[in-house]
Structure formats: C-alpha cells, structure tokens
Amino acid sequence: MIKIGDKLPAGSLHEFIEVEGEGCSLGPNAFDIATVTAGKKIAIFALPGAFTPTCSAQHVPGYVAHAEEFKAAGVDEIWCVSVNDAFVMGAWGREQQTAGKVRMMADGSADFTKATGLTLDLVARGMGLRSQRYSMLVVDGVVRTLNIEAPGKFEVSDAATLLAQAKAA
C-alpha cells in the first residue's frame, strides 16, 4: 500500500476534455502521472464511484467549494480519482460543476488504484473493484499526507481536512 514518502505509481489517468486547447483534444485524453505531477502540489481525493450518494452529496462538493482556498494554500490542482471511465467522470463533473476547480480523473481499469494498493472490493454490491475513499497531498509526485477512510466512513478524506494539511505544509 502506498504511504507517505512514496512516489505515485507510474501510469496514466484519463480526463474528459470538453474544450479543445493546450494540446488536448476533445473527449478522453490520457495524462502521464509522472509528467502532470512534476513540479506541482496536487490535492488528490479518491472515492468508490461517480454518482454515488456520499461522493455526490459531500465529497466532491466540498472540494469544489474550497477550490480557491486550496489555490491560496499553494495547491496547483485538485484531482478527483475514481474507477470509472472518462465519459462518466466528465458527465459527473458537469453535474457537480467542477470545471476550473477539480479535475475529474478516470481510472477506468483500476490500474492506478491497484498500483497504490487502495482497492475496495464491491463485487457483492454489483460494483466490481473500486477505490477506497482517501485523500492525499502530493508534491512533485511524492505523497506528503495520506488520509485513508475506514470502510463505509467519510471522516478524514474531506476537503477541510486536506485543506488544513495543505496550509500546514
């Protein structure tokens, strides 16, 4: 399992781009994790699934609401990572009004999630392999803080907790 001081695993995440620009075409685009984290401070939070109750009602809205405070604390980007495809993450981002605030990063095959060791088996619920709920502050690709939720909980991966950690970093 990934821990504080570890580099993020190699690989890529996908993001649905609605406006062409800066080398990105419309639709799903792959982003190399090492490249897009280099020289940046990134707040990453992960959750079990798009459009799920806690994720939609509390987790994503908290980061959207605090986006400007994260920027003021020196955070370059906020990422929401979920084991969903880029089309689903793009649709969820539109619904949650994340544009310009939170990048909705798809881990469609759970490769990133498996590499971090933060998987959640929801096969019995018909959802397959998903991500645990967590948050982390990453600086230049290295994990500086890591907040992993206990199963079924939403207590330490919220925006307020990670924002306090970003301000203290």
From TrEMBL:
Pfam families from the UniProt entry: Redoxin
InterPro entries per record: PRX5-like, Redoxin, Thioredoxin-like_sf, Thioredoxin_domain
Keyword line: Antioxidant, Oxidoreductase, Peroxidase, Redox-active center
Catalytic activity: a hydroperoxide + 2 glutathione = an alcohol + glutathione disulfide + H2O
Residue stretches making up the Thioredoxin domain: 2-168
Organism domain of life: Bacteria
Enzyme Commission numbers on file: 1.11.1.27
Function: Thiol-specific peroxidase that catalyzes the reduction of hydrogen peroxide and organic hydroperoxides to water and alcohols, respectively. Plays a role in cell protection against oxidative stress by detoxifying peroxides.
Entry-linked PANTHER family: PEROXIREDOXIN (PTHR10430), PEROXIREDOXIN-5, MITOCHONDRIAL (PTHR10430:SF16)
Family, as annotated: Belongs to the peroxiredoxin family. Prx5 subfamily.
Protein name in UniProt: Glutathione-dependent peroxiredoxin
Protein's organism: Ideonella margarita
